[in-house]
């Protein structure tokens, strides 16, 4: 099972460290089975509970994953190796179409909002023991959620979408639990799930969101949580339609104990309506980051959900950072109240560039996807070759490996840094680099 590598140790921490050394040196390869607990306990001459504790440490650190009776194995991708490291840097003279950042020209000036927040803080400083959520922030956030048909629920504030998702998963799930994730999907999320000791279960997507049949399969396989991107899905641009939402709500309704998390990070940059799944299960959460519309460095996200979920998140948050800066909450509330971002204009700007690129690629016979947001997903036959050829043509793009588990090879293009004059030259370069359409691509 382990070849020549010998796991050593008498205490749980020593056994866990021995396994981690094997993974770090390559002696234990990704996907490799490790011995059953009783078998390893016998060979080491220790109690089975000691080995069980070691395996629990390894799951919590994201080194191994457990799949019921199939046993435990080394994670296919160690959590210490972030997918973000799979990137192509832009040398001098190369245009960057791969980093996934918003267009700085579409972000609002923060000076007036920060100044107003500072003025309010000078009049009434926020001190220990006060409510973690700014009243005006909560009022405006709840009004926007109400307008989009999101069920009523208390408001919490986190340091971005990933922070919110991590906190919700952590208060409900245990190491080894399965989490249905979109494939292709957000690379940071695909890293986070196993880093928490959880088991990612890939669910294919198309332009309308997660495929119901794949979601049903994930639930049959015991997924205890489901994470769905509502709009501007990264990397494909998928947006959940009314028809797909109805199918998924019906499916999730048969599994009321499953935790549902919706990520609506596209709020403020997408002109497609929200079709929330929230309320289809007993435990749910909706996350809205301000990163794409107002600036990544604000590190603010709204979290709502059922009362128990939000209460657990707030309770655990209180034992860590305590709260997210009231100054930043106040600044974001000011941006919302003053209409600092014209959402329709921002969405239109991204749409013109994104749709223009998708159409230009279509005219060249290249399959491309980008229904919403700022990204375009292009399936390719040879991902490494396509990335290299595009770099040679003066364009840096994101390798699809950052975003996929079982999905086919592809590249992701971000339109934020493009002008309309860039569309045709970029489409020519992609068409030349993509090669023949792969037999298995999107989803």
Structure write-up:
This protein is of the alpha/beta class and 443 residues long. It has 15 helices and 15 strands. Helix 5 packs across helix 12 and helix 14 crosses helix 15. The chain is globular and about 65 Å long.
Helix content: 25-40%
Taking pLDDT < 50 over at least 5 consecutive residues as the criterion, the unreliable ranges are none
| Radius of gyration using CA atoms only | 23 Å
Average pLDDT value? Answer: 93
Strand order of the largest sheet: 4-11-10-9-8-5-6-7
End-to-end C-alpha gap: 33 Å
Global structural class:
alpha/beta
Count of DSSP strands = 15
Shape: globular
Q: N-to-C SSE series? A: HHHEEEHHEHEHEEHEHEEHEHHHEHEEEH
- Report the β-strand fraction as a percent range: 5-15%
Total helical segments: 15
Largest sheet: 8 strands, mixed
Strand and helix map with partners:
Elements (H helix, E strand, L loop, with lengths): L11 H14 L11 H8 L3 H13 L3 E3 L5 E3 L20 E2 L14 H13 L11 H13 L7 E4 L2 H12 L5 E6 L3 H9 L3 E8 L2 E2 L1 H9 L2 E7 L12 H12 L5 E5 L19 E7 L1 H4 L6 E5 L1 H12 L7 H12 L5 H21 L11 E5 L3 H10 L2 E2 L1 E2 L10 E5 L8 H12 L9
Parallel strand pairs: 3-13, 5-6, 5-8, 8-9, 9-10
Antiparallel strand pairs: 1-2, 4-11, 6-7, 10-11, 12-15, 14-15
Helix pairs in contact: 1-3, 2-3, 4-12, 5-12, 6-11, 13-15, 14-15
Task: Please outline what is shown here.
The chain has 443 residues and is of the alpha/beta class. The protein contains 15 helices and 15 strands.
